[in-house]
UniProtKB/TrEMBL annotation, chain A:
<dbReference type="InterPro" id="IPR009078">
    <property type="entry name" value="Ferritin-like_SF"/>
</dbReference>
<dbReference type="GO" id="GO:0097266">
    <property type="term" value="F:phenylacetyl-CoA 1,2-epoxidase activity"/>
</dbReference>
<protein>
    <submittedName>
        <fullName>Ring-1,2-phenylacetyl-CoA epoxidase subunit PaaA</fullName>
    </submittedName>
</protein>
<dbReference type="InterPro" id="IPR007814">
    <property type="entry name" value="PaaA_PaaC"/>
</dbReference>
<dbReference type="GO" id="GO:0010124">
    <property type="term" value="P:phenylacetate catabolic process"/>
</dbReference>
<dbReference type="InterPro" id="IPR012347">
    <property type="entry name" value="Ferritin-like"/>
</dbReference>
<dbReference type="GO" id="GO:0005829">
    <property type="term" value="C:cytosol"/>
</dbReference>
<dbReference type="InterPro" id="IPR052703">
    <property type="entry name" value="Aromatic_CoA_ox/epox"/>
</dbReference>
<dbReference type="Pfam" id="PF05138">
    <property type="entry name" value="PaaA_PaaC"/>
</dbReference>
UniProtKB/TrEMBL annotation, chain B:
<dbReference type="InterPro" id="IPR009359">
    <property type="entry name" value="PaaB"/>
</dbReference>
<feature type="region of interest" description="Disordered">
    <location>
        <begin position="1"/>
        <end position="20"/>
    </location>
</feature>
<dbReference type="Pfam" id="PF06243">
    <property type="entry name" value="PaaB"/>
</dbReference>
<dbReference type="InterPro" id="IPR038693">
    <property type="entry name" value="PaaB_sf"/>
</dbReference>
<protein>
    <submittedName>
        <fullName>Ring-1,2-phenylacetyl-CoA epoxidase subunit PaaB</fullName>
    </submittedName>
</protein>
Length: 330, 113
């Protein structure tokens, strides 16, 4: 998931009877499956929770360009390079759809950007891991985008109209991403012994960080309960993680690669795999800013923002000059 | 909006009336698909002027041949009905069922109409 540990009011979910009439009418619309649109009345908590979640999601798409951008100049063929470029460009597009959705809630684009750059707002922990080999491009598309899709598909039904519509566009494009990743993995896994080792190494390094993307178990979290009541979260983290493992293990088997989990075993009773939890202390450490690439990622975003300042200002000055000339001519 | 909520220290208060920073303006983007349809709203983006808005719209919203024509309208120029009007504003048409063809019973013998 691209938004992790999104906290809501922390007050637990009110029953309909405990709500004031306005809030009750709002909750009843959500319960009936209606979409909430930007100008509709909404509780302050719903608005802020959504800004936090959509903003974090948008930031993840933008920062998520960096690990893959790392390999554009070193892609093994021109075709692979063109495909990777298209994929990274899509991520920028996804970030833009989401920023626009967040802006309908009354926050400005620059405020969101500044909160990312200062570290006040978060992005997904997964993008703080390095991409060391070309096989990592395969693993990122297959596992990271695969995990993101698990979360994004149900979010197409989320209660906030602009968010749901952004998710529809994103999901359409996201399956290209996962397939291109798996395509790279197939090529590597069927290649020379050295290539196969690289593919296995990429899986080894990205498996647990991918499981972390869903966030720690939230079965007992009041934040998640509230988000689910508002339908801005559709499944628990554990449900999505289980679904991801069940879908991914056979795909790894097809590649002839081994999931780095000795405890992994099919459980007939639950109709899914039993698997090992990732190291949650590592997760919290990465979230706190101590992952292998946190500093590098934020530095790259800050540099891009600072270096682009004269372009943003120059284009605006040019637009204003032309507009005033037009007025003068009329 | 209600008073600042301590559960959300990282999220700025939504205050539509506060002075806007010097940002590129927001444009709403409408795209005509390839099938002779009307232009449809697809989303929004920021751009310094109309020309850049259309170029950016091409990159953001038509990466997979989704359109043959783009309209960009600066968001502040769009007038919108208010959601609070929903009931009373549209109510007059509710009582006029005769505006629908199915209101009229035409005998089968008359044929297709």
């Amino acid at each position: 998931m691209y938004a992790q540990m999104v906290k809501s009011t922390g007050q637990g979910v009110k029953s309909l009877d405990e709500m004031e009439p306005q809030e009750r009418a709002f909750q009843e619309r959500i319960n009936a499956g209606e979409k909430i649109e930007p100008k509709d009345w909404m509780p302050a908590g719903y608005r802020k929770n959504l800004i936090r979640q959509i903003g974090q999601h948008a930031h993840s798409e933008i920062v998520g360009q960096l690990p893959e951008g790392n390999w554009i100049t070193r892609a093994p063929t021109l075709e692979r390079k063109a495909i990777l470029l298209a994929k990274v460009q899509d991520e920028a597009g996804h970030g833009l759809y989401l920023y626009c959705a967040a802006e309908t809630l009354g926050v400005s684009r620059d405020e969101l950007t500044e909160d990312l750059l200062s570290g006040k707002m978060k992005y997904s922990s997964i993008f703080n891991y390095p991409t060391l080999t070309w096989a990592d491009m395969g693993a990122v598309g297959w596992l990271v985008d695969g995990a993101a899709i698990m979360n994004q598909v149900p979010l197409q039904r989320t209660s906030y109209g602009p968010y749901a519509r952004a998710m529809v566009r994103i999901c359409k494009e996201e399956s290209f991403h996962q397939r291109q990743g798996y395509d790279i993995m197939m090529k590597m896994a069927q290649g020379t012994p050295a290539q196969k080792r690289m593919a296995q190494d990429a899986l080894n390094r990205f498996w647990y960080p991918s499981l972390m993307m869903f966030g720690p178990s939230d079965a007992d979290s009041v934040h998640s309960a509230q988000s689910m009541a508002w339908k801005i979260k559709m499944n628990t983290n554990d449900e999505l993680r289980q679904k991801f493992v069940d879908q991914t293990v056979p795909q790894a088997e097809y590649l002839g690669l081994t999931v780095p989990d000795e405890t992994l075993e099919w459980n007939d009773d639950k109709g899914g795999y039993d698997f090992a939890e990732p190291d949650w202390s590592e997760f919290f450490d990465v979230i706190k800013g101590n992952g292998p690439c946190n500093v590098e990622r934020l530095a790259a975003r800050n540099k891009a923002w600072d270096d682009g300042k004269w372009v943003r200002e120059g284009l605006l000055a040019h637009a204003e000059k032309r507009a005033s000339k037009k007025v003068a001519a009329e | 909006m209600s008073a600042p909520n301590s559960a959300y220290p990282d999220i700025p208060e939504a205050q539509p009336e506060k002075p806007k920073r010097h940002e590129w303006p927001l444009w709403e983007i409408f795209i005509r698909g390839q099938h002779g349809m009307s232009h449809r709203h697809v989303g929004s983006l920021h751009a310094p002027d109309a020309e850049m808005a259309i170029k950016n719209a091409r990159d953001v919203y038509t990466r997979r041949n989704e359109g043959v024509s783009i309209w960009a309208v600066e968001a502040r120029h769009i007038a919108a009905s208010s959601p609070g009007d929903k009931g009373p504003f549209y109510e007059p048409s509710e009582s006029k069922v005769y505006r629908h063809p199915t209101f009229f019973d035409i005998p089968d013998e008359v044929g297709a109409m």
